[in-house]
Design brief:
Structural class: alpha+beta
Largest sheet: 6 strands, mixed
CATH topology: Nuclear Transport Factor 2, Chain: A
Helix content: 10-25%
Order of helices and strands: HHEEHEEEE
CATH architecture: Roll
Distance between the termini: 30 Å
Strand content: 35-45%
Number of strands: 6
Radius of gyration: 14 Å
Number of domains: 1
Shape: globular
Number of helices: 3
Length: 134
Amino acid sequence: MGTADAGTIDLTTVDGLKAALVGALEQADAELAASLYEPTARLLPPGAPVITGHAAVLDFWRRRIAAGSDGGVLEPVRRDEHGHVAVEEGRYGRRSGDRLLDSGKYLVVFRRQPDGSWRYLTDMWNSDSSDPPA
């Protein structure tokens, strides 16, 4: 699959970009997931160092998928757009099949690209619990 599938996904809206990320996880497609981030994007996962750049983001999604993540939900609470930048606060749920692996909140910075598509620039989240469901 990989980034070739990105052409059939509407990346011209932030909601389309988020749906593409959830879809990439559902398809176990780490390459597609990583392609939704800018080349210099930063992930700020809980309990881990900052992850920077395409290769590191791709490695993160490969490991996350291999560990059993196969989907989830991203629900916006608030979004502010300022020209080519959007900042969104929301709630997430990460799952494996019918099992909830984690839930919490996120804060994301998106940036519109010269071609009009959106990409993740900075992606930060943290769990509501110190002990995610088993």
